[in-house]
Amino acid sequence: MSQIDNLPPLREVIATHGLRAKKELGQNFLFDLNLTxxxxxxxxxxxxxxxxxxxxxxxxxxxxxLAEGAREVIAIERDxxxxxxxAEISAAYPGRLTVVSGDAMDVDxxxxxxxxxxIVANLPYNIxxxxxxxxxxxxxxxPAFESFTLMFQREVAERIVARPGDDAYGRLGVLAxxxxxxRIAFNVGRQAFVPPPNVTSAVVNIVPKPVEAxxxxxxxxxVTKAAFGQRRKMVRQSLKSLGVxxxxxxxxxxxxxxxxxxxxxxxxxxAMxxxxxxxRATSGPS
Length: 286
Known about the structure:
Blueprint: H1 10-17, E1 29-30, H2 33-41, E2 50-54, H3 60-67, E3 72-77, H4 83-92, E4 97-101, E5 117-122, H5 128-136, E6 145-153, H6 154-161, H7 171-179, E7 180-188, E8 193-194, E9 201-208, H8 217-229, H9 235-238, H10 246-253, H11 266-283
Parallel strand pairs: 2-3, 2-5, 3-4, 5-6
Antiparallel strand pairs: 1-8, 6-9, 7-9
Helix pairs in contact: 2-3, 8-11, 10-11
């Protein structure tokens, strides 16, 4: 493995600072700096870009982001054991690394935007989907972030990029497909991590795109929650949990009612979400 900077190899860093990966923190460390550099390049050149990284751990991806030319990296790390290793990186890249010690779930991400800003992270498995959902539901939309380059379990990555008719198509696929262009950049085998997880991982690149004004994301989420809550049933049945006349929803989306949620195009969910407030107003309290 070639070095990308003059800092010690990651195995040495981990040994020096006693950074045994903790399962309860969803930690799986990447040792291959060539691989972390590949992840850093997925979203294009980092020259002049501020990058927000979640869960840097010993800093393999952090180092790659800086070596690839990021103007600044803001690294959010909950594990206090990793802070000394990150401090060494900060010293090697003066003025370009800011470490935020705290829980990634509590961060106000829009407040960290300063000029061109991206989120790039090898997300902890135990909070990855929750973090992504939070980012995809930010208002206003599109957000100030240029893109998200994130590593997930391959199963989650497939749900993000799934399209109607795919086995993995569900609420996350509708949300991501509505608000972004998402693609799987490449897979990462379990042997690349220490300790190896039980699953293959994948790096996903997500680029926000404009959506129509005036359609609150909460309405779309309510419709998809109802539709996919009983995904094997026809939508005429599954949509009843919304407490409004189902025929009005079906008419708004041009549906017959015998379809199943996994086969509906994203526009059908949006059409039903648009119709939901008026149907609630006319049907009274549910």
